[in-house]
Amino acid sequence: MIIDMMGISAKVSECMGSFRLFVIGMIFVLLGINPGFGAESAKFLSLGPSESARSKHADPQQDVRAKWSGEVLYFILVDRFCDGCRCMNYEINRRDPAGFHGGDLDGISEKLAYLQDLGVSTIWLSPVVYNRPMRFYKDQAYHGYWAWDYFSVDPRFGSVPKLQELVNRLHSRKIKVLLDLVVNHMGYDAPFAQAHPEMFHHKGEIKDWNDRNDLETGCLFGLPDFASETGAVKSYFQSVAKFWIRTVHPDGFRLDAVKHVPVEFWNHFNSHIRDNVGSDFLLLGELMDGNPENMVRTLEQGAFSSLFDYPLYYTLLDVIARNGDCRQLALRLYQDFRYPDAAMLATFLDNHDTDRFITSCGGDIGKLRMALAFLLTARGIPTLCYGDESGLPGAVEPAKDNRRDMEFERNPGLFAFTKKLIGLRRGHDSLKNGVQITQFADRDTFAFSRLSTVEQAIAILHTGSAAAELKIPLGGLLPDGTTLIDALDGSEARVNAGNIECSFASAGFRLFFASAPQSGAFDEAFRKASALSRDPAALGRVSVSFELSGCPASEAETVHAIGGLPELGDWKTDHLAPSLKRMGAGVYRGEFLLPARGVFECKFLIRGADGKIRWQDGANQLVQLPATGNVKIVSDWKNMEK
After folding, report:
1. How many C-beta atoms lie closer than 10 Å to residue 217's C-beta?
2. Does the structure show a pLDDT above 90 at 436?
3. Of 133, 32, 41, 146, which is closest to residue 90 (Cα–Cα)?
4. Is 584 left (phi over 0), alpha (psi -120 to 50) or beta?
5. I want to staple 509 with a disulfide (CB 3.0 to 4.6 A). Which of 112, 363, 373, 381 is the partner?
6. CA atoms of 288 and 281, how far apart (whole Å)
7. What pLDDT, on the 0 to 100 scale, is given for residue 476?
């Protein structure tokens, strides 16, 4: 193979025993590689039983939850974090957003005290494997997602011994490590792809991003796409996983581009690792999808430990960054019953593929503080992106400015605030493991509790700009007269008539902790909240009548309520709820038993005898049901009103 870069041509051998020759700028680098990599290799190692494998728990999900539910993750884009060894700085240009900036493994090692001081407990490293050594048009592989050799570390970042040293140093500080693994594609012109064409698809670019087959067999931005359905590819990545697990001893993998790889591959890969390494090894997938149903299907069918919580991310953007309705948070979190365990979802504000949250907020540091407070108190495994704690800005377009270099001293006050939140989360079992309960939601306020058997954490997010006196119902868990102290600013609040009464001068976040007033006082509430997280009808049902007027349906057509509950068809027109009864010209009525305290959106539709659907125009109607009583929802076909 001939490589031409900057007018310099060099022949690169397919394999030279256990070494490979690459050209970086005008420097020839001889790299050690795994003997199984060469073009002549016809066999790949299988991931057999590992010394670190443990006997299987009766419930593997319980194993992984016990190890990971209290973690705070921190993502590091290696090239943009810290330059620790300038001897590896080939073609560095920090003014070029598409080029290498010099960050490396030594730089991360230099900042271990910083990371430990911040309080994060797991480091997720961007891919460190050997990447395409030259530019592809204007872009370099600084991000690590254009692999050329899966069995060596990119020399710009360090070496396998350097990675081993870093992981050992992190483990000695009781900080876990996730390695980023890309199984969907390799880098442009990767020698391995040329040597093994049978292991790749050859149908060209993805054309229909809504077609599953096209997503899984087309090339993502032209990158060589692995034929993941083949046994050879499955075996190859077992070999890759085995190499890094046995060489570096990470605590888990972050798995890239999940929706571009068949779920059958994921099930095979994840199950094999879990069976042989241990059920508490984290397998965290990146599924960029805002639909909880798609998340659940991928989690279960792909045998993942966790996925990044994109549905919640999109809702936080709408509510906090874009001044949306706080009831959307209640709606989003009510859907947690759909997940096997929503507490295991990895929550986040931004990452290397999204705009920085502070940028989405228009630079409003107050909004970022509210978002960080929510992230670090709500259910899930909170994941910070390097620089979140310093307010690092940046947009994806036009120049990937969201991946700018880390600025450690940019905002000491925000760092201290983030550090305090992390300390509170890691120091309170209610925040690490407590069941989440929505206490109150209106246009400008969302309040929730995290409840354990011995402690209640009460968090209140208020987005309104004007001063407000709030009364948040607590469900009778704390006696009247109880004084609570805000753990963030020291202000006081009191419990009166079953409500926590607190004030806001403007938008902000409050966080209170209360111990059970006597032994067992929270047990029943904890039991009910735990049941509700699995079954939306755990608190019983309430009678809800829908009344619709002004409906243009003919007598031959049927009228249905539809919405985001199984009883209302879950928005699926092939699973419609029973039709409403015609009461007169344009008037329809129906009654349903729906989960007590349910939160959902709904509207109406008309179905013709031929099956054709006519939807009610306008926004969906958001409904919050009470714990008891009867509810009537009155709507007009053209003007929905509750």
Report:
1. 20
2. yes
3. 133
4. left
5. 373
6. 22
7. 87
Q: Are the beta carbons of 15 and 39 closer than 8 angstroms?
A: yes
Q: Considering only CA atoms, which of 300, 284, 282 is closest in space to residue 292?
A: 300
Tell me the average pLDDT across 164-188: 98
- Pick from 100, 113, 99, 104: nearest CA to 83: 104
Enumerate residues 6+ apart whose C-beta is below 8 A from 257.
Answer: 182, 183, 184, 185, 220, 286
What percentage of the chain's residues is helix, strand, coil (to nearest 5)?
Answer: 30, 25, 45
Phi then psi for 238, rounded to 5 degrees?
Answer: -65, -40
The three-state secondary structure class of 86 is: helix
Question: Taking the CA atoms of the chain, what radius of gyration do you get in angstroms?
Answer: 27
Which amino acid belongs to residue 432? K
End-to-end CA distance of the chain: 69
Sign of the torsion angle spanned by Cα atoms 270, 274, 275, 276: positive
CA distances from 260 to 209, 227, 284, 339 (A): 10, 11, 15, 22
Q: Tell me the pairing of strands 468-473 and 499-504.
A: antiparallel
Q: Where are the beta strands (DSSP E) in 320-424?
A: 346-348, 381-385
Tokens of 352: 């290397």
Query: 3-state DSSP call for residue 462?
Result: strand
Q: Which of 213-217, 529-533, 593-597 has the lowest mean pLDDT?
A: 529-533
d(CA 588, CA 549): 7
Contact present, 617 and 638 (Cβ < 8 Å): yes
| DSSP of 219-253 | BGGGPPBB-TTSHHHHHHHHHHHHHHHHHH--SEE
HEC string of 277-318 equals HCCCCEEEECCCCCCHHHHHHHHHHHCCCEEECHHHHHHHHH
Hey, what are 72's tokens?
């705070």
**Measured distance CA(62)–CA(344) in Å, rounded:** 10
Extract long-range pairs of 83-90: CB within 8 Å, 24+ residues apart: 83/107, 84/108, 84/109, 84/110, 85/158, 88/155, 88/156, 88/157, 88/158, 89/156, 90/24, 90/25, 90/27, 90/156
Beta bridge partners of 602: 563, 621
Tokens for 14, please give them: 């397919």
> For the chain, how many residues are written?
642
Distance between CA atoms of 64 and 86, rounded to whole angstroms?
39
* pLDDT tens figures, 284-326: 999 999 999 999 999 999 999 999 999 999 999 999 999 999 9
- Tell me how far apart the alpha carbons of residues 384 and 5 are, in angstroms, rounded to a whole number: 37
What tokens appear for 360 in the block?
A: 């989405």
Q: Which residues of 544-574 are buried (b: 16+ CB within 10 A; e: fewer)?
A: bebbbbebebeeebbbbbbbbbebbbebeee
- Under DSSP, the state recorded for 205 is B
pLDDT at position 218: 96
pLDDT score of 60: 65
Structure tokens given for 468: 């407000």
3-state secondary structure of 73: strand
> Does residue 530 sit in helix, strand or coil?
helix
For 458, phi and psi rounded to 5 degrees?
-120, 120
Q: Report whether 552 contacts 508 (CB < 8 A).
A: no
